[in-house]
Amino acid sequence: MITIENxxxxxxxxxxxxxxxxxxxxxxxxxxxxxxxxxxxxxxKSTLIRLIGGLDTPSTGKITVDSRISWPMNxxxxxxxxxxxxxxxxxxxxxxxxxxxxxxxxxxxxxxxxELGKAFDDKINTYSSGMKSRLNFSLSLAFDFNVxxxxxxxxxxxxxxxxKITNSFxxxxxxxxxxxxxxxxxxxxxxxxxxxxxxxxxxIWFDNIRDALKAYGGAR
Amino acid sequence: MPWFWIIFxxxxxxxxxxxxxxxxxxxxxxxxxxxxxxxxxxLGIIMFREVVMNGMNAVxxxxxxxxxxxxxxxxxxxxxxxxxxxxxxxASIIFFTVAASxxxxxxxxxxxxxxxxxxxxxxxxxxxxxxLSVIVRFMPKIQSIVTVTLRVMYFTSGxxxxxxxxxxxxxxxxxxxxxxxxxxxxxGGFFSAYxxxxxxxxxxxxxxxxxxxxxGLFLQYHMSHRLLSK
Lengths: 220, 230
Prior knowledge:
Number of domains of chain A: 2
CATH class of the largest domain in chain A: Alpha Beta
Radius of gyration of chain A: 18 Å
Largest sheet of chain A: 5 strands, mixed
Mean pLDDT of chain A: 86
Largest sheet of chain B: none
Helix content of chain A: 25-40%
Number of helices of chain A: 7
Oligomer: heterodimer
Low-confidence stretches of chain A: none
Shape of chain A: globular
Order of helices and strands of chain A: EEEEEHEHHHEHEHEEH
Number of strands of chain B: 0
Strand content of chain A: 15-25%
Largest interface: A-B, 20 and 16 residues
Structural class of chain B: mainly alpha
Protein name (chain A): ABC transporter ATP-binding protein
Number of domains of chain B: 1
Pfam family, one (chain A): ABC_tran
Distance between the termini of chain A: 31 Å
CATH superfamily of the largest domain in chain A: P-loop containing nucleotide triphosphate hydrolases
Distance between the termini of chain B: 34 Å
GO molecular function, one term (chain A): ATP binding
Order of helices and strands of chain B: HHHHHHHHH
GO cellular component, one term (chain A): membrane
Helix content of chain B: over 70%
Radius of gyration of chain B: 18 Å
CATH topology of the largest domain in chain A: Rossmann fold
Number of helices of chain B: 9
Keywords (chain A): ATP-binding, Cell membrane, Membrane, Nucleotide-binding, Transport
Strand content of chain B: under 5%
């Protein structure tokens, strides 16, 4: 369960404060559903994901997370270009406190799942964005997170890989859940049960993603 | 290739200064080994410059890794300073070993003074790196000012010039710089024959280093959210 209370966020800029990006949001995100986060560009979806992921601090209000939560996965960042995929993976496992003797097993998993093969030992600079996000995603699956924060990352990767991810996050007895930012209606309908529509600094919860998409579609 | 530069960069500085020195046939401080004098000073000032410059640019260099909440901007500055310090330490071991093996006076007279002085110069660089990594986020142009200032420091902090022999009004200004106290202590610690400039005090350097470090930590603590956003 992720509880968001009276959350507001604006950025400090060089000339003072920005406008409110998010204003007075109260939400409870249950742990047993996949949630799609929708809204226009610049509505504050990524800001909300960053706040939930603990990368940024709210201007007011607070966020309580009582489950293990991944880092917000997106295209940019998360990797150091002049190191190999494996070195990056090792680094990320270590900063998350994985003991040294569990590293080989987790690295093996990431290599297998991402289907990078030999490229795992190449520098990240040589990776395509699809390969980078495959590695990023596979690595996060090597941890037992309860909630995965995915910012647009599912829209890359080929069909086969998308299907594999889908299988990990669907099904009856799953222990993992997604909070997914996406502009792709098909992906959202396939992956998510519930939805959050971010609009004008507010966030509206829908138990059914279809209703959320309908509200969003109506506003467009 | 990086391994080559670890040795070659300081080596090129040392060679250039030895060449100038030999060519101009300058009479040096009696009883002081000129090779060791340049090596000890140049390695110190290069370390300082590298720690400051790398610290200043650390946050943008590691921007990708800030998407993990475990990593704070200050970590990037610290790890770069540690890395640079380590690299220079490796180079120093090689330089002084080689100097000693060709019969130069490369073993310090007071090793502890020398080690403490190097360490304090490193701490000063780390503190400045922390401060500048915050400032550079708001004023990117400051980088060129820092580059020029470091260039001036290279010549005026006593790394390659015996400050004792500088005439008085200028000497007093030079000794306001904490780095000068560091390099005078290093050279005084290496050679019993070298007279450090009057008023040389490791405490002065230590105070400067600690104050700088705490200002750096204060800025990092209060401004790190600004470095993270965007």
